[in-house]
Design brief:
The chain has 147 residues and is mostly helical. It has helices at 2-35, 39-69, 83-113, 119-141. The two termini are 24 Å apart. The model has no long low-confidence stretch (mean pLDDT 94).
Length: 147
């Protein structure tokens, strides 16, 4: 029963995280390209972060708890020995890539995007959204036994 509670919380957090990134990519990025202004993206970021970041934190915690329920403990991360370990390991790699992209964006891309071409920012938004959707799809594969 506890696993089911983790799953429901995880899915609610994923709804916020993935949905927010899809809205950003499909609604705000085209508008920013059309208007040649990053103001809308900045407003979205300011409004999304208070719900998006806690959602990401919840996703990480519930994901780890569910992995442990499937006996994919810390020692088994990145071993790729069975179907569920493969999913957990791939999702962890994608998480690390997303966190790295977020760091690069905050430290390097955002400060220079307003001065020059913002297309690297748009590309990173596309990558992070694609990663989020990929992680969602991978998570859904656990139900059928993994990869």
């Amino acid at each position: 029963m506890l696993h089911q509670i983790y799953l429901i919380i995880h899915l609610l957090a994923a709804t916020i995280w993935v949905g927010g990134h899809l809205i950003l990519l499909l609604r705000y990025v085209p508008k920013a390209i059309k208007t040649k202004s990053l103001e809308e993206l900045s407003i979205f970021r300011k409004n999304f972060e208070p719900v998006g970041m806690p959602s990401l934190f919840i996703l990480i915690i519930t994901g780890i708890l569910m992995a442990y329920d499937y006996n994919v403990t810390f020692e088994k991360w990145f071993l790729f020995e069975n179907s569920i370990e493969k999913i957990v390991s791939i999702k962890l790699i994608l998480l690390l890539i997303s966190l790295t992209l977020a760091f690069i964006t905050i430290k390097f891309v955002l400060p220079s995007a307003s001065k020059g071409s913002p297309f690297i920012l748009y590309f990173i938004i596309f990558l992070v959204t694609t990663i989020a959707v990929t992680m969602l799809v991978l998570g859904s594969l656990v139900r059928i036994g993994g990869l």
